[in-house]
Amino acid sequence: MKWTGQFSGYSASAFRKDLISGCIVGIVAIPLGMAFAIASGVKPEYGLYTTIIAGILISLLGGSRFQIGGPTGAFIPILLAIVIQYGYENLLIAGFLAGICLVLMGLLRLGSLIRFIPKPVTVGFTSGIAVIIFSGQISNFLGLQGVERHEYFFYNMKEIVLRISSMNLYSVLIAAICLATLIITPKYLPKVPSSLVGIIVSTLIAAWLFPGKVTTIGSAYGIIPGGLPQFAPLELTWDRVVMMLQPALIIAMLGSIESLLSAVVADEITGTRHNSNRELIGQGVANMVTPLFGGIPATGAIARTATNIKSGAVSPISGIIHGVVVLMIVVLFAPYASNIPLASMAPILMVVAWNMSEYKTFTHMLRTRTADSLILLVTFLLTVFTTLTVAVQAGLALAVILFIKRMSSMLAVNKVLPDHSSNKEKVQPHMVTEDRDCPQIGIYNVEGTLFFGASYTFESFGQKLLAAPDLRVVLLRMGKVPFMDTTGESNFSRLINRLMERGVVVIISGIRPQPKKLLLKTGCYSMIGEDRFFEHTGEALNYALENIQYNKCLGCTQYAFRECTKLSTKENLNDKHIS
After folding, report:
1. DSSP letter for each residue of 436-504
2. What would the mean pLDDT of 266-288 be, rounded to a whole number?
3. Which of 160, 429, 506, 537 is the least crowded, having the fewest Cβ atoms under 10 Å away?
4. For the whole model, what pTM was predicted?
5. How far apart are CA 292 and CA 202, in angstroms?
6. CA 473 → CA 105, 466, 508, distances in Å?
């Protein structure tokens, strides 16, 4: 049987491929789900519930055929901060509100806006999050006792230093065994999930050789319950909603970025194309439903999505199967997971942090020593030492400021004259010299964007024009002005108005559609006069020669314009000859 719609062409053969990939990803997701939950400051089963519910809903409702959703490392510092400051119950409310925000973003078709976030900002906060995750697992790796979790990096590092005397050598050994397994397994058993092998091997060694010597999930968080997650409605009040709105917006922002980045990665691997707005809606619904079963916020997981594709996935069915596999294992084997040492979970998260750090991209951007390097470094440091919210806001603000600075420096206004040594006698700036210039006619190339950031440059040009006592005609060649904003138009109109008050004739050539449309709306176009707008420079010069009276100057026998340009006949002033 073949299906239609989203599963068009789906067959039994495709289902077999989805079944295999779904089982593989489900097995991979189990240790990660528990590890992410523990690192986020909540019980490990909540990570499993998120993997099950969000994983199924994101695959079922999302806009990517291969996306695997669930708890991710990127959320760890945010969720931990929320748990520390507001508590687990309010984290559920924040996740629910974030889901609403994501649905609204999808309905308002804001999915495409995510791609406008500069890469240095995303790499900066991703690398910063990786540092926080890695450093947050040092205490579990060393088996430190009595460590209190803090929201800020500095205080967490101080806590480790203060508790270093409580280091447990058994925990260090178990963590080292798990880490070695994580490194060796991919080399010899590339198709076997290394995280699962690492947990099983290290847990068995700890139970056999060091019983009771290391802290386990059960001793720290209690026995992981088997069975289905229980539905529990949220206690929503207006005060709670207002209090958790800002954390919810942070979760929604990061969730949208992570999910769409993951979908883009899937597109690059498979050559397909995702629906970004539908993806946001699917992510939103998943995050609205998951808290009702105790789950934490979820998003698209890049590593698991890539594993899903490499395992042969064909459709979203593989993601649904991955959630069902996790559910079956939780029902059948959850209590056994309580014996897993926390020291075994630490290397898994450290490896996740290393893989998500994008260290190659990070170092490459730093080596360029450009404005992007500064944006990257500022975002990274603020992510580590303050909060993700501050880091992203500062990174985006800095990116905008530096972009405006670069764009403003690109505006150039140069006086030009025809170059008779070229075949087409193009106007060139180098033809204007002290000995060869016209005080009555000024031909100017305007190149760049006329916007608020370039206002100073354009105003400086205007001051020079207004200071010229003998100026009779100004020809502005605007073929290289692609955009003009209202500030640029205001400065432009003010200059034109002041020139016309002095009796100077303003002629425009080559104006582009957007600036022309804006000048029509503001009335500047009619103020200049429709008959003084030309498509070609030659036409504009011809108009200037035929219709405007000039004064003789410097003892010239010709009009000043003809003398300085060395043009003695009107035939040379056509649009085919001068451009």
Report:
1. S--SSEEEEEEES-BSGGGHHHHHHHHHHHHT-TT--EEEEEEEE---B-HHHHHHHHHHHHHHHHTT-
2. 92
3. 429
4. 0.81
5. 34
6. 52, 12, 11
